Amino acid sequence: MNFELLYSDRIKQLSPSPIRELLKIAVKPGIISLAGGNPSPDTFPVKELKDCFLKVLEKDWKRILQYSPTEGNTDLIEIIKQYSRNQGINCETENILITSGSQQGMDLVCKVLLNPGDEVIVELPSYPGSIHTLKSYQAKLTGVPVDQEGIDIDILEDILKDRQKTGILPKFIYLIPTFQNPSGVTLTETRRNSIIKLAEKYGILIVEDDPYNALRYDGENIKPIKALDRNENVIYMSSFSKTFCPGVRVAWVVGPKDLIRKMVIGKQGADLHTSSLNQAIVAEYCRNNLMENHLKDILSYYKEKRDIMLESIERHFKNVATWTKPQGGFFVWMSLDKKENTDELFSKAVEKGVIYVPGSSFCVDGSNKNSMRLSFATVSNENIKKGIQLLSEIFSL
Q1: What is the pTM of this model?
Q2: What is the rounded distance in angstroms from the CA atom of residue 295 to the CA atom of residue 298?
Q3: For residue 332, what is the DSSP state?
Q4: Higher pLDDT residue, 5 or 317?
Q5: To which protein family does this belong (predicted)?
Q6: pLDDT tens column, 353-379
Q7: According to DSSP H, which parts of 46-152 are helical?
Q8: What is the DSSP string of 3-22?
Q9: How many domains does the chain have?
Q10: In the chain, what are the helix, strand and coil shares in percent, each to the nearest 5?
Q11: What phi and psi, each to the nearest 5 degrees, are found at residue 175?
Q12: What CATH number corresponds to the domain at position 203?
C-alpha cells in the first residue's frame, strides 16, 4: 500500500515536535538535559495519590469506572469554579470543560474556531506544542516579539490595524502570559489591561494558556487576563500537569457557554470524556486540601533550582549573553551574541554531554537562532551547575 497517496494534506505539512525528538537524546546515559519542560518526578505526591485512588474506588467505584459526562466530573468542576473565582474569573458550571491535558484544550479550540488559512497571532517565541496544533489545522501563524514585559503591544496593534483595513481579522491571539514557555517572562499588569482593550476594540479572541500560574517563587501575583474579561473575549486554559502530575492528563477550559458547548461536541468525537478515574482522584486530592501543602513544598523545591541556574549563568555568561530572570515556572531564555547559532552548535553540545532547546524551535518565523531555552525543573542541582559550565565551554566563552 502506498500510504503517501492516502495521507491528508494536514498531516503531510506537519513535522515532528522538536522537543519530543530531543527527549530521545535526553534519556541517553550521561546526558545532562536542560531541554525538557517536564515537572520533576521528585515532586509527584505518590503516597497521597495512592490514598486518593483507594478512597475513590472504595467510595464510588461504580460511577468512576463507568463512562461519564463529556463536560467533566461535577465535583471537580465545582472545585475549578471556586478556584477560578478566587483568581477573579467570573464563571459558572456551564463555562467549564474538563480536558485530557491542556493540549486537548488547544486542539478543541482550534477544531471549533479555525478553517484552513485562518490567521492566528502567536508570541515570538511560543510553545511548540500549540504551534504544532495550530499548524495541524492549517492556520496561518503571525509572530509578535516578546520582551521582558511580555508581548509587544504596539506591534500587535499595528497588525490588528492593518488586518482591519482588509476586513479579515485574525481568529484569535494565543498567549502564555504568566512565566511563559519558553521565555519565562510574565506579561505585566499594564500590558494585560492593554491587550484586553485591544481585544474589545477589534472584536478578537484571546486564548490564554496558563499552566504555570501557581508556580510563583517570588514577586506579586498578577491575575489572569481572563479576570479582566467583561465581554467574553478570553478563552482560559489551565492544567494539573505542572502542579500535580502530567500522567493524570487532567486540565480545564473556561470560556463562553456557547463556545464550551461546541467544544463538548468536538470532544465527543475525540475521546468522549476525560478519564473518570483520574478526574475523581484529582477532585479527592483537592477536596482534602492536599494541594495547598503540596504547592508549598514544590515551590521551595523549584525556587532553589531556579536560583542555582541563574547564579550559574551569571558566573559563566556575564557580559556575553542576556537572559530572563523568571519569577516562576520552569524556564530561562538565554540569548548569545548574534553570530552564534544554537541550531548549528547543538551537535557539539551533545558531544559534550549537555542539551538545550534551540531558540528557533519556538519561533514561527525561524528567528532567535542565537537563543536557547534552558529548563531547571528536572535536573539535579549539581547537574544544573555542570550543564551551564559545559555550555560556556561549547560557546567558547
Answers
A1: 0.95
A2: 5
A3: E
A4: 317
A5: Belongs to the class-I pyridoxal-phosphate-dependent aminotransferase family.
A6: 999 999 999 999 999 999 999 999 999
A7: 46-64, 74-86, 102-113, 128-136
A8: GGGTS-HHHHT----HHHHH
A9: 2
A10: 45, 15, 40
A11: -135, 145
A12: 3.40.640.10
